[in-house]
Amino acid sequence: MSKPTALSEINAASESGSSVLNLNGHLLDPFPVEIFRLKSLQQLYLTDNHIRHIPLGIKALTELREIYLNDNLLTSLPDDIFKLSKLRLLSLTNNQITKLPVEISKLKKLEILRIGDNQLNEVPDDISKLDKLRVLDLSRNHINNLPTNIGEIRNLEVLYLTNNPLQRLPTGISNLKKLQELSLIGLGLDEIPAEVWALKNLRMLFCSGNKLKQLPINELMALKHLTLLFIANNKLESVPRDILKMKNLHNIEWNNNPLNKESIAFLTEFYKRTF
What we know:
Keywords: Leucine-rich repeat, Repeat. The protein has about 280 residues and is of the alpha/beta class.
């Protein structure tokens, strides 16, 4: 699609006073500044374009609640995007962003931040000030360490750390008492970090693609609400049979491990029973 097509959609939204504008897949470059006329806009979809920069004028969209900028060519974020005081969702997956500015802390109403598949090397400590944040996706970046104060994001329910070169998890992560989903896929872990066992509300734990050789069954069984466990592509030679006593566990993804025959037998039976 062309920019003239996008402009016609912007004009139509302006005339109708629409709160939603979808310009996904229009191959847009640059960012169409005509959007800034849409003072009632609450949801803006700009995924799958060729946008390299976000103009400073974006602060004019004072009613914006959600913005989707996935699959573009962004390398940085302008200060003005952090002036969108009503923003609840910021989705930036699959760009080339190298830094998450400390100004992210100004988005006091932000609930969902997706910034996976970028070029981040670190996460600012100020992210801990996002009191309302429920979902944080940092997958497939170049992050070596997480902020030590990440446990202060008290309302966090979903944390994806997939495929980052993390050296360790900060001890403060055990303070994320509302966490329900945690992805540690592809971190090169020899064991599941001890901090995980303090997360008693976990429903989903993704640990595939590591170097795990054993599962600490007592700690695992203490996760009473766990429904899904991904442990595929590790070095497990056995899985404790007591895992079947976990009443809420309905899905175990265990393929591509050098498991013994006994483990394979009861896990296969478990799979047949639950699917």
